[in-house]
Amino acid sequence: MLVLIKETAEEGSRTAASLIAQAIRKNPALRLGLAAGRTPTELYQNLVNLHRSAHLDFSRVRLFSLDELIGLSSDSPNSYRAFFHQHLVDHINVDRTHLHLLNGQPKEEIASYCACYEQLIREHGGIDLQILGIGRNGHVGFNEPGASLNSRTRISLLSASTRRNLARVFDQAAVPEWAVTMGLGTIREARTLLLLAFGEQKAEAVAKAVEGPLSASIPASCIQLHSKAIVMLDREAAGLLRNQEYYQREASRLTVLLPEWFG
Ligand code: GLP
Q1: Strands 2-6 and 229-234
Q2: Which of 110, 112, 153, 222 is the most exposed place for a label (fewest CB within 10 A)?
Q3: HSE-up of 262 (CA within 13 Å, CB side)?
């Protein structure tokens, strides 16, 4: 695991976008896993800027989404599908047939829908690079505390704390109870992970995920099982890490590792 600590979220987002751009230039048919939420918003803006100003080409890139809320109407602005369109998809030259966003209202039975999504990822050769955020309770995607470290794409009941966080965009009564999410086993199969966390409110979850024991109670700790995981933090999110000084020294390894990790 490589922990990169930047001074600000802005710098972290810019660096993350630059890593993704390098990955796309190296492999123009990159299979990229997308996360929603406030954290990666600026990263997506940076990717859009790179597309516009530096001709970053998404025409062969394939996009997969990490999770989606269940039960929202297809035109809900609060769906993650709408989020990806608003922040990325509508501003880049991605081929619409390369867009694989989870549907919170699938026509078929949910278990077979999830199995088909797994199959789809496999058929396209797996995900090369998965962007991740982290919840304050340590969740990743919608894998809530207690999720199996080997879980697959499935329906997940949202925890009370996650629902409280979602209440900032929904009326309290309208906060969804369920979501569909890639499992921790699915996420761990991505060739490289890029987990972003910014702000003091994420510091505790980050410290547990990066330096705490591997535990289903902190689903994001599953990144410890991954041999190619980058954790991109700002100063505040890194605030409770014990080994900050070591991570700072180790950060220079990135230039050596990049060609291998994004190969
Ligand atoms: C949400 C999503 C996650 C996201 C996380 C953090 O509930 N399910 O995919 O990474 O919580 O969200 P934010 O970046 O808004 O803090």
Answers
A1: parallel
A2: 112
A3: 24
